[in-house]
């Protein structure tokens, strides 16, 4: 399991995002917040101290991501610290104070829906080169960038680059595999955080809202909606925490990790459907208004679950694992006592 995080640090993280959100709309004044987080040592929370990072671990990073998501603050902390800068450090490349994101390029040197690319100073790109992969830290100005946004209003940009003009540094397949798993778990953590916030909002609304002379929470139909939100949120969080615990226990080398990440992402994806639908039913018409904050959490939940692999993609991965295991191996697969022999080809 992940180690406990100092409660004062968690409170400080929450206070910073709460104060920012109290003064700005989601997506506003990012540069100002980035500077404040940098002064607090939170921009590169998990970076090594020798490269200018704070030397913290995933436990602290998870709390930081949860705090930002809980308060509806949209900022590329995960993309910068846990993905881009980690990839640079792992490849033995220098890391400076530039704001970064990261992506895998296809065979044509392109990537679609890259988070925060147009808003970043540099993009860490990885691409297949012969039998291996290469990584390069590229100035965003030298890329062809087509700005875009997801349904939650967050930057999701298309980029392209002539990889023939990049030197790059060779990295192993394991590094790229870990990059994809890290990215997938990052989004699972963020979705779980907004699902928990949606649950809190739904409980508060159903308790405070009076309808036909009594609180909404007194109606059995509403109770069923809220209890399903709670159950789905708990399942998603348990699956995500389990995958994270195994990743950290094994230093991202467990033969079961790909399966556990697929379980987490599948649970998170399906949970988001139930939670978002039920929450809007609980809130009624007010929950669909721009003025109400519910959409700040329901829209990211639906968008984030599709980043780094759609729900259908992760469901297909689970199907392949189950098929490969067969009836005799299913129990060991779902109890995580199996081994890599049951991995899909």
TrEMBL record:
Acyl-CoA dehydrogenase/oxidase C-terminal domain mapped to chain residues: 184-303
Pfam families associated with the record: Acyl-CoA_dh_1
GO molecular function: medium-chain fatty acyl-CoA dehydrogenase activity
Entry-linked SUPFAM superfamilies: Acyl-CoA dehydrogenase C-terminal domain-like (SSF47203), Acyl-CoA dehydrogenase NM domain-like (SSF56645)
Gene3D superfamilies: Acyl-CoA dehydrogenase/oxidase, N-terminal domain, Butyryl-CoA Dehydrogenase, subunit A, domain 3
First-level EC class: oxidoreductase
InterPro entries, A to Z: AcylCo_DH-like_C (IPR036250), AcylCo_DH/oxidase_C (IPR009075), AcylCoA_DH/ox_N_sf (IPR037069), AcylCoA_DH/oxidase_NM_dom_sf (IPR009100)
Keywords: FAD, Flavoprotein, Oxidoreductase
Cofactor needs: FAD
EC number: 1.3.8.7
Entries under PANTHER family matching the protein: ACYL-COA DEHYDROGENASE (PTHR43884), ACYL-COA DEHYDROGENASE FADE28 (PTHR43884:SF20)
Family indicated by similarity: Belongs to the acyl-CoA dehydrogenase family.
Protein name: Acyl-CoA dehydrogenase
């Amino acid at each position: 399991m992940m180690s406990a995080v100092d409660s004062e640090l968690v409170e400080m993280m929450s206070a910073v995002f709460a104060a920012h959100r109290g003064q700005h709309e989601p997506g506003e004044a990012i540069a100002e917040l980035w500077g404040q987080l940098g002064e607090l040592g939170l921009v590169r929370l998990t970076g090594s101290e020798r490269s200018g990072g704070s030397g913290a671990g995933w436990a602290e990073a998870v709390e930081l991501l949860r705090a930002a998501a809980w308060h509806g603050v949209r900022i590329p902390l995960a993309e910068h610290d846990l993905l881009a800068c980690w990839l640079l450090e792992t490849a033995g490349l220098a890391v400076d104070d530039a704001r970064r994101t990261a992506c895998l390029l296809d065979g044509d040197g392109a990537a679609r829906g890259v988070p925060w690319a147009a808003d970043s100073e540099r993009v860490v790109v990885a691409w297949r080169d012969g039998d291996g992969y290469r990584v390069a830290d590229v100035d965003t100005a030298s890329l062809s960038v087509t700005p875009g946004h997801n349904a939650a209003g967050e930057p999701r940009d298309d980029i392209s680059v002539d990889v023939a003009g990049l030197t790059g540094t060779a990295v192993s397949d394991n590094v790229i595999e870990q990059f994809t798993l890290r990215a997938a778990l990052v989004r699972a953590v963020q979705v779980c955080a907004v699902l928990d916030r949606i649950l809190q909002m739904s409980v508060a609304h159903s308790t405070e809202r009076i309808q036909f002379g009594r609180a909404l929470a007194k109606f059995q139909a509403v109770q069923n909606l809220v209890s399903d939100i709670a159950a789905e949120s708990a399942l998603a969080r348990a699956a995500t925490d389990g995958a994270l615990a195994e990743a950290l226990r094994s230093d991202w080398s467990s033969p079961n990790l790909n399966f556990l990440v697929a379980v987490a992402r599948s649970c998170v994806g399906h949970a988001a459907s139930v939670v978002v639908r039920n929450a809007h039913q609980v809130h009624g018409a007010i929950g669909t208004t721009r003025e109400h904050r519910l959409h700040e959490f329901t829209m990211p939940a639906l968008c984030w679950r599709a980043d780094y692999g759609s729900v259908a993609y992760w469901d297909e991965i689970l199907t392949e694992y189950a098929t490969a295991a067969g009836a005799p191996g299913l129990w060991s697969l779902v109890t995580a006592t199996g081994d890599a022999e049951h991995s899909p080809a």
